[in-house]
Amino acid sequence: MKKIIFALSFFVFFSCSEEEENYDFTDDYISSDYDVNFDSQKIALNQNWEFAEFSKINSGKAIFYKAGENQNCFTVSVNAGHGTSGGNTVKTFSHPDKSPKVTGGTNAKGAVESMAVSDGMTFKCEVSEAQINLRVAVILRKMLLENGFNVLMIRAGDDVQLDNIARTVISNNCADIHIAIHFDGDGKKYDKGCFYCGIPEELKFLQNVKNHCNNSEKLGQCIISGLQENGLLIYENGRTELDLTQTSFSTIPTVDIELGNQCTIPLTKDLEKRANGILAGVQKYFNM
Questions:
Q1: How many CB atoms lie within 10 A of CB 245?
Q2: What is the per-residue pLDDT across 87-99, written as a single tens digit (0 to 9) for each?
Q3: In terms of DSSP H, where are the helices of the chain?
Q4: Cα distance between residue 288 and residue 245, in whole Å
Q5: Closest by CA position to 165, among listed 271, 265, 244
Q6: Over the stretch 42-69, which tens digit does the pLDDT of each residue have?
Q7: 10 Å Cβ neighbour count for 215?
Q8: Which of the residues 28, 184, 198, 249 could staple to 261 if both were Cys, CB 3.0 to 4.6 A apart?
Q9: How would residue 74 be classed by pLDDT, with cut points 50, 70 and 90?
Q10: Residue 94 backbone phi and psi in degrees, to 5
Q11: pTM for the full predicted model
């Protein structure tokens, strides 16, 4: 067991403008503010785990953090979306039965194979989505641990060599719930708000999806409720149906939460509000 420290604090100024909107964004994130001092251990993908054979990028390791005295025995997998170098050049099956995707998204409807890990989008202020996803994850890690949850941190740095299947399979075997953090690259010229990716009815023919779908939907709804209570804008009814690799290979409750889009201004105080909303949703899910 050893302490894992997430380093690299910096203060950078980004200038951002577009025809419809002009603003300056001063990056105020200091990573050391969210360092944690809890027992931890690295976890690799076990090739004997169900669905592990479908993974093609799996040399990296997740980090499991054990909560302290107020531990409640629940483990939350926190998956900062994207952040796998070379992941966009590798393809993995979209579904474990090798059937085609039932909706579009990053990969087209009908795709039998999907990108192992896409690069994600870039915010209008020229910061990568992967970078902001990680910041939310790091903030959430600290909040969860301080509230008694164990945390499985899928990605604790800029690059982890774990594809979406490996991330999901590790979560299936080492956590109670799996939350992937994203911001939507929708091309809109305004911040439309937060939503979660609901499970299409057509995907429920997979037995493992059928087994977790109701609890996955409950988890998504709880997180949307927590975000709303923390003052975040919610897109429409907070749910958009998408066929995700994460969903189709999951055996535990799982959700992809989209915390805004490329027009979101990722100030630290607002990322903290998002992390606190997710925490509130997790507590609701476990009736705490």
A1: 28
A2: 999 999 999 999 9
A3: 129-146, 164-174, 207-229, 245-248, 268-285
A4: 30
A5: 244
A6: 999 999 999 999 999 999 999 999 998 7
A7: 15
A8: 184
A9: very high
A10: -70, -35
A11: 0.92
